[in-house]
Design goal:
Blueprint lengths: L3 H10 L4 E4 L2 H8 L4 H5 L7 E5 L7 E5 L15 E5 L14 H11 L7 H11 L6 E4 L6 H10 L4 E4 L1 H8 L4 H23 L7 H14 L3 E9 L20 E10 L2 E2 L2 E7 L4 H20 L6 H15 L10 E3 L6 E4 L13 E5 L2 E3 L3 E3 L2 E5 L6 E2 L8 E3 L2
Parallel strand pairs: 1-5, 3-4, 5-6, 10-18
Antiparallel strand pairs: 1-2, 2-3, 7-8, 8-9, 8-10, 11-12, 11-13, 13-16, 14-15, 16-17
Helix pairs in contact: 1-7, 8-9, 10-11
């Protein structure tokens, strides 16, 4: 998944000889290891992916002995690893082992573990020839006490914070990342359609939310968030779906997502049971026009500021004259909010290879809301939607 040319370019621009990923997302991006402990204990678990500028295709992974088996499923396997801490897996001696079992045995039973993650990291840095080089570290999940100890153990090592550098690297997607984003979106689209298919008078928000999550799981995805409300509940959208019953003329607001193969989706759709009001039709067409314009004008070299200003003006002219927003979307990838944020005044320039998740929501207390949101790939010769579900206002017959 790693965009090696992008990694090299950004490392060179920042004078870095090495990179250390510490957060789940960055470890996964650099090594292909999705560590369950980092999902369970994100503030405590220590797992690192380490790469050298001249050996980007050979990542090292520092991982606990108990978690080591997860390195076997990495897309970069076989990885070079160094493990730490105590975990017991018994060697039966008399049983023939398969390839994965044999590798685990040779790496974690036959080879003694390091005392802790810091000692293991020192081993990786020394092996990669980085002990006296300039290395960027994703500081967000690195144990605070380790920073001082690392300086003491490797006094010639020059360490700088690199969480934002890693996010800059991840803005430009590889073909494999685009494939995963498209698959994640497809899982969410099918789950939206499954939930909408059971909409009828009397069904509750909770029942539709359950159907959405069920569909995601059946497709092999992980439901991440499900903001699903009826009618005037939409502006209170982050309150969990409840027992509000669907009535003729009500809108159904979906702002939902899933995680598939480590990549996020974040989609929004509006459905209506029966005939929509004139206001709902007009307002929906206005926000849809804004999303369409964003797709049309997002080209390499355009600033986020100009994109934002033109889309806001479009929605106002198309039917919501008082429309305003604090942002109109974001990048998406191993984080649901990858950079760039499509926010006012952002002078960042759009680049080919970005995947932008554009949205143009409008919420009004006492009435409801309209919302459409989709990802698209920015290309040199034109953009490509990564969704296939209709972006029209969804009409459900009574």
């Amino acid at each position: 998944m790693m965009n090696e040319s992008r990694v090299a370019e950004v490392m060179d621009a920042n004078g870095l000889d090495g990179l250390i990923g510490t957060r789940l997302e960055n470890v996964y991006y650099l090594s292909g290891v999705w560590n369950v402990s980092q999902t369970l204990f994100p503030f405590d678990s220590q797992c690192y992916a380490v790469v050298a500028r001249d050996r980007l295709h050979e990542p090292w992974v520092v991982i606990s002995t108990g978690d080591w088996d997860q390195t076997l499923s990495s897309s970069s396997a076989p990885l070079r690893t160094v493990h730490y801490g105590t975990f017991f897996r018994e060697d039966p001696v008399t049983t023939d082992l398969d390839a994965d079992e044999s590798r685990l045995k040779s790496q974690t039973i036959d080879r003694a573990p390091r005392k802790d993650a810091l000692e293991a990291l020192v081993v990786a840095l020394e092996d990669l020839g980085l002990a006296d080089k300039r290395v960027g570290i994703d500081e967000t999940a690195f144990k605070v006490a380790y920073r001082k100890e690392l300086a003491q153990r490797l006094p010639m090592l020059n360490v700088s914070d690199a969480s934002e550098i890693l996010r800059e690297i991840r803005m430009i997607k590889t073909e494999e990342e685009v494939r995963r984003l498209q698959r994640s979106a497809a899982v969410t689209e099918r789950a939206i359609a499954a939930a909408a298919s059971i909409a009828r008078p009397g069904v509750t928000e909770r029942e539709l939310a359950i159907e959405f999550r069920r569909s995601v799981v059946l497709q092999g995805g992980i439901p991440t968030f499900c903001l699903l409300r009826f009618g005037r509940n939409a502006p209170l959208g982050q309150i969990p779906s409840d027992d509000t019953q669907l009535k003729p003329g009500d809108e159904i607001w979906f702002d939902v997502g899933s995680l598939v193969e480590g990549y996020w989706s974040d989609l929004a759709r509006i459905y209506v049971l029966g005939e929509p009001s004139e206001k709902l039709r007009r307002y929906y067409q206005a926000v849809r026009a804004g999303e369409d314009l964003a797709f049309e004008i997002a080209r390499p070299g355009l600033s986020i500021r100009e994109l934002f200003d033109r889309v806001i003006a479009c929605v106002r002219e198309a039917g919501i004259p008082h429309y305003r927003r604090h942002h109109l979307g974001h990048g998406i990838g191993v984080e649901v909010y990858d950079p760039p944020l499509l926010a006012p005044g952002n002078e960042h320039v759009i680049e080919a290879g970005m995947v932008l998740n554009v949205e143009t929501p409008y919420f009004e207390l006492g009435w409801g809301g309209v919302h459409v949101e989709d990802p698209f790939l920015v290309g040199e010769a034109g953009n490509k939607w990564l969704t296939a579900l209709s972006r029209d206002l969804g009409l459900i017959d009574l």
